[in-house]
Design brief:
Blueprint: E1 12-14, H1 16-26, H2 39-49, E2 52-53, H3 66-72, H4 78-83, E3 92-96, E4 100-104, H5 112-121, H6 127-130, H7 134-145, H8 150-153, H9 170-181, E5 185-189, E6 195-198, H10 206-209, H11 216-231, E7 233-235, H12 236-242, H13 247-259, E8 263-268, E9 275-278, E10 290-292, H14 303-310, E11 331-336, E12 339-349, E13 358-366, H15 374-388, E14 394-399, H16 403-409
Parallel strand pairs: 1-8, 13-14
Antiparallel strand pairs: 2-4, 3-4, 5-6, 7-9, 8-9, 10-11, 11-12, 12-13
Length: 414
């Protein structure tokens, strides 16, 4: 990977603290807040994060809402619905951009090469070839009736074998393939989080749908360019992960972007591989962040990068058996300034107190070297989060070395 800059005679060095500040500024933690956040705020935030990962886990709040909250503060989640529905004013659409994620709708033509790849693979299951007429049948029905969920389209077909908690019908599996190929697009989701499928011409704005498909190297460069803007400073591996590209394609894109002056190679203290800084990346003197980060936040989703930047070993333990979990089921890193100073296992119990709801702190842990006011800062952030989630209070359970300090600061729940 370092071959990209092997002919250069001088490479700037960055301290690890500088790299952290660059990365957090690129992710939007330097932006001045808007009160209240507006569609302009959301648009600015999406320009920083690039994508919003979608996940069905709803222990606290859906994954795609949390990165916006971490950067924008308490906002009306209807902003995201408005940005990702309709056609004329649509700003976001779901696609397999990182994994399942909201991406800017203008990336649709850039992703057509990926769509062709999935078409050639015939999906993740053999059902596409086993029932060759099912895809055309589903497409024809959606064209005629409009946006629909898999459940509405399912005609009682036999269920597939359960895998990772899924029990999808054959129709649902073929719809998933049609979405990855671009023959269908996601028009929105129901209140039960079910996907609404529709044909692209009723989802993607016509001026974008009519754009030509860029050549493959150009598409790769655009994705790496966006990844570099969102990371600020990153290794080839980091850049490849952002939009899930191959390393060889990433190296080729990085080489061209370095030659064009959009990226510059740098050395980061403690990193063994060359990093690349986007030419527009800001290096602030200080980051004054205070935020709880979703496990699916771009700051922490690539765990090796998280450890390299923050000296913070992190894994999500949702799929770990309860008795083997170290920190809990749904653990959020706590960002204070430019450091991750703790982690907290959270649950939104909306039935607590007869329906008034509580934010349950099931465990809270300080990182080595956490500042003395970590508990106070965390309580303030938990209070803000509870207010956004419309929960009436906070309940702190016993687990973790931060728990006693939180319990002293949190008012008792009646």
């Amino acid at each position: 990977m370092s071959e990209v800059c092997s002919t250069l005679t001088r490479v700037e060095s960055l301290s690890l603290a500088q790299a952290r500040r660059i990365a957090l500024a690129a992710q939007g933690f330097l932006d001045k807040p808007h009160h209240p956040p507006t569609m302009r705020t959301l648009q600015r935030t999406i320009e920083r994060t690039g994508v919003l990962q979608v996940d069905s886990v709803n222990v606290l709040q859906r994954a795609h809402f949390m990165p916006l909250y971490s950067r924008m503060g308490a906002y009306d989640v209807d902003l995201l619905r408005r940005a990702s529905t309709g056609q004329r004013d649509r700003r976001l659409v779901e696609y397999w951009a990182h994994v399942q994620a909201y991406m800017p709708v203008e990336l649709w033509p850039v992703m057509r090469h990926r769509m062709d790849h999935y078409r050639e693979r015939k999906g993740k299951w053999s059902i596409v070839e086993a029932e060759p007429g099912l895809a055309e049948s589903l497409l024809a029905e959606i064209r005629e009736r409009g946006a629909a969920t898999a459940r509405e389209l399912d005609a009682g077909l036999p269920r597939a074998k359960e895998h990772w908690g899924w029990n999808w019908s054959n129709a649902r599996r073929v719809l998933d393939w049609l979405y990855t190929t671009g023959d269908l697009a996601i028009a929105g989701r129901t209140s039960q989080f079910e996907v609404l499928y529709d044909v692209p011409e009723r989802v993607i704005p016509k001026p974008i749908l009519d754009l030509p498909t860029p050549p493959l190297p150009e598409a790769h460069r655009e994705l790496i360019r966006r990844a570099a803007r969102s990371h600020g400073v990153a290794t080839v591996k980091d850049l490849a992960d952002y939009y899930r590209m191959g390393v060889a394609d990433t190296v080729a894109a990085v080489t061209t972007l370095v030659e064009d002056g959009e990226l510059e190679p740098v050395r980061v203290e403690g990193w063994t591989r060359t990093a690349y800084r986007h030419r527009d990346a800001r290096l602030p003197r200080r980051i004054r962040a205070r935020a709880l980060l979703s496990p699916f936040d771009p700051v922490v989703w690539e765990r090796a990068r998280t450890e390299a930047l923050f000296d913070f070993h992190y894994r999500i333990e949702i799929y770990t058996p309860a008795h083997k979990r170290v920190h809990g089921y749904y653990v959020l890193p706590f960002l204070l300034g430019d450091r991750v100073v703790g982690r907290v296992d959270l649950k939104a119990d909306r039935q607590y107190g007869g329906g008034s709801g509580r934010l349950i702190v099931k465990g809270a842990y300080a990182e080595p070297g956490a500042p003395s006011d970590t508990a106070e800062q965390l309580v303030a952030e938990l209070g803000r989060l509870a207010g956004w989630l419309k929960l009436a209070g906070i309940v702190v359970e016993e687990r973790g070395d931060l728990a006693p300090g939180l319990q002293k600061l949190v008012p008792p729940v009646e």
